[in-house]
Design a protein that fits this description.
Helix content: over 70%
Number of strands: 0
Low-confidence stretches: none
Mean pLDDT: 94
Length: 160
C-alpha cells in the first residue's frame, strides 16, 4: 500500500464519519428540534453545544478530513491531470466549502447566539436563527457527502 492509498483511506473513513454525524443531525436531531418550543429549543441546543462544540473528537475528524487529502494531492502532484488528482481536489474543496467554512462562518456564530439565550425567554426571532442553523447543516452535510463520494471514487481509481 502506498502513502496515497493510505491517506485516501484515511480521508474516506474520516469524511464518512463526519457525513454520518451530519446526516444524523439533519434527519433525526433537526426533526426533534423543529417541534420544540422556543424554550425547549434553547435548552436542548445549549446542552447539546456544551458537549459537542469543543469535543476533541470533533476537531480531530475535521482536521483529518481537511488535511489528509492535501497529502494525497502532494503524492499525486506529478500527474495533476489524472482523475484521482481532480477528484481529490474536488473532494477537498467540497469539504472545505461545506463543513469547514460553513461551520466557521455560519454555525459557530449561531452557536454563540444560542448559548447567549436565556432558556426561559429566548428572543422573538429565535425561529430565524434556528432556520439558519438548519440551512447551514444542509450545506455542511452536502459538502461532506460530496467529499466522501469524491474520495471513494479517487481511492478506487488511483493506480497501484
Amino acid at each position: 500500500m502506498t502513502l496515497t492509498h493510505g491517506m485516501l483511506g484515511v480521508a474516506v473513513i474520516s469524511t464518512r464519519l463526519i457525513t454520518g454525524l451530519l446526516m444524523t443531525v439533519l434527519f433525526f436531531f433537526e426533526r426533534a428540534l423543529k417541534d420544540l418550543s422556543a424554550s425547549g429549543f434553547a435548552l436542548v441546543m445549549q446542552r447539546f453545544l456544551k458537549i459537542t462544540r469543543t469535543h476533541p473528537l470533533n476537531y480531530a475528524m475535521v482536521l483529518v478530513s481537511g488535511l489528509a487529502p492535501i497529502v494525497v494531492l502532494v503524492t499525486l502532484r506529478d500527474d495533476p491531470d489524472s482523475s484521482a488528482f481532480l477528484l481529490t481536489t474536488a473532494g477537498l474543496l467540497a469539504f472545505w466549502c461545506g463543513p469547514i467554512l460553513t461551520s466557521r462562518f455560519v454555525a459557530q456564530p449561531l452557536y454563540g447566539v444560542f448559548l447567549g439565550w436565556k432558556t426561559d425567554a429566548p428572543p422573538p426571532d429565535w425561529r430565524e436563527a434556528r432556520d439558519r442553523y438548519f440551512r447551514a447543516n444542509v450545506v455542511r452535510g452536502l459538502g461532506s457527502a460530496v467529499a466522501f463520494v469524491c474520495f471513494v471514487i479517487a481511492a478506487m481509481i488511483v493506480p497501484l
